[in-house]
């Protein structure tokens, strides 16, 4: 797709090697089209990896999009060069007067902390409030999903007895929703988390709709405000080797590390992973962009409310 991303972003070369079409800003300026404006608040430690994962999925529609990366003023990442952050990211203060067609808020490695004890919680709360009136539709992923459900709807998170780690089958509760157009009866989604939100709390809240769930991993995707908010407890955006890299990183460093479930061929970590989620991940993001962003956002972006 004609995805407009900043010139020289590392993801460009990586995705071109995968034969995925991306358009840098210089080329895109020659097209007379009102592009969709997408902002990504990237809270993950390995920001370049997450950028690549998300752009890979956003690159699967024929619509032109401008992608902006947001960072927090109250938090300095430790695992990404400061030069990269200065070149490609903008503080919320620089973006708060703008409106966006779509927003993605990623997970963060702070899930075992109470929300209010996260050192950037106040800024996150401000961004959550801002998104309700400045963004047509927002995807909240993993920790951001739990944080958003807690902040907006009072849904508590709960610590799991052991890490939910692997690839789990998800069942769609309403196959007629546009977000699941073209889906099969079930799909797979990677999970990597130590906490959960409980099904009973979600279905008891009339403002929320549980749209995908798993008998193993629990609540999978929650929708609110008619699709203006989606809360995804897993990681559809993960590349094939992400769970494996996490497993190898944590082995020997933690005493609660199990091999990811339903991930390696024959459950043998010496074998490559079996990728079962990529097709539905692309379809989910494509449906989100088409039906909940493009079809709903006003042509005059300033009329978003």
UniProtKB/TrEMBL annotation:
Keyword Transferase attached: yes
InterPro entries reported in the protein's UniProt record: Class_I_gatase-like, HST_MetA, MetA_family
Record-level GO cellular component terms: cytoplasm
Reactions catalysed: L-homoserine + acetyl-CoA = O-acetyl-L-homoserine + CoA
Name of the top EC class for this enzyme: transferase
Pathway: Amino-acid biosynthesis; L-methionine biosynthesis via de novo pathway; O-acetyl-L-homoserine from L-homoserine: step 1/1
Residues forming coiled coils: none
Cellular compartment(s): Cytoplasm
Its biological purpose: Transfers an acetyl group from acetyl-CoA to L-homoserine, forming acetyl-L-homoserine.
Protein name: Homoserine O-acetyltransferase
Gene: metA
